[in-house]
Amino acid sequence: MNSGYIKKQNLNFLIDNTNNILKWAFKKYPGKIFGTTAFGANGIVLLDLVNKIDKKVPFYFINTGYHFRETLDVLEHYKKNGFNIIGVTSNVDDSNHLLVDMGPDVCCSINKVEPMRKILQENKGNLWIAAVSRGQSSTRRNFRFLEPQDNNIIKICPMLVWKEDEIWSYINENKLVYNKLYDKGYKSIGCEPCTTKVEDGEDSRAGRWRGSNKEECGLQTEFGK
Ligand code: SF4
């Protein structure tokens, strides 16, 4: 077997594994599945895989008001192409962009965690699909496929074992439209004031809130039991 074949087959095994998890999800929670995405590399792969099963599954996008133009371009692309994307914003008016100056914990809490809490309240008892991988950061290394959340929600993480190069092989093979900032040295793309490029050898999320101890905005870590 040559290395190209082995690489391809490894990706096929991963896709089969993720599709099996999704098949389980659709059988257990018919009509009760929702996702969240910020249109990162993992997110667009998951969107594509879910969309191939059921185009109606809603994916929430939390618009903090601080996203890069490139991120909003990807959002528009997927919306225009029939993906069921629901935009959500905070109830607090931050049109003058003052919240970020109050520190990342306050800003993330108002702009990300509170809107997410609202999403979880609206989806009590449902299944939340998230595109996280264990390799993204130390905070995600112990994530499981199923993670109980508030409001009797189960979060399912069907891409837990995907590695970065496998994500990109899928994106390239399927010609998925992705955030152009990945071509400029970014590896994990959040809000513009809190995202920097990543050096070789760093975790993909190392560019988020650089210079502080903060590693998570709370969306993936605040609501677990
Ligand atoms: S990532 Fe930065 S700009 Fe975005 S909500 Fe958090 S603190 Fe605010």
SSE topology:
Elements (H helix, E strand, L loop, with lengths): L2 H26 L4 E4 L4 H13 L5 E4 L6 H12 L4 E4 L15 H19 L4 E3 L16 E3 L5 E3 L7 H10 L52
Parallel strand pairs: 1-2, 1-4, 2-3, 4-6
Antiparallel strand pairs: 5-6
Helix pairs in contact: 2-5
The structure holds iron/sulfur cluster.
Protein described:
The structure is a single chain. This protein has 225 residues and is α/β, with parallel strands linked by helices. It has a single domain (10-194), classed as HUPs (Rossmann fold), CATH 3.40.50. It is 36% helix and 9% strand. It is built from 5 helices and 6 strands; from the N terminus they run αβαβαβαβββα. Strand 1, helix 2 and strand 2 (59-62) form a beta-alpha-beta unit. The longest helix has 26 residues, at 3-28. It starts with a helix and ends in a 52-residue tail after the last helix. The structure holds iron/sulfur cluster. The site of iron/sulfur cluster has 13 residues, from helix 4. Iron/sulfur cluster (SF4) is lined by residues 64, 66, 100, 104, 107-108, 111-112, 190-191, 193-194, 217.
